[in-house]
Amino acid sequence: MWQQFGIAIALLLVIEGIIPFLSPTGWRKTLQVISEMPDEKVRLIGFVSMISGVILLYLIH
């Protein structure tokens, strides 16, 4: 189980690093837009992302 958790974290880091590697300027602009959003909208985006991940895990498993 810990090995799978480690693999999941490693894949997360790889995926998170793709955008700043390919387009650092676009990544900075996106972060700036996100930093100007109200907290409620950022929380909604995070919630939708988490639910999407849970649904995807359920469908794959």
UniProtKB/TrEMBL annotation:
Keywords: Membrane, Transmembrane, Transmembrane helix. The keyword Disulfide bond does not apply. InterPro entries: DUF2065. Coiled coil: none annotated. The chain crosses the membrane at residues 5-22, 42-60. The keyword DNA-binding does not apply. It comes from the Bacteria. This is Putative transmembrane protein. It comes from Thioploca ingrica. The lineage of its organism: Bacteria, Pseudomonadati, Pseudomonadota, Gammaproteobacteria, Thiotrichales.
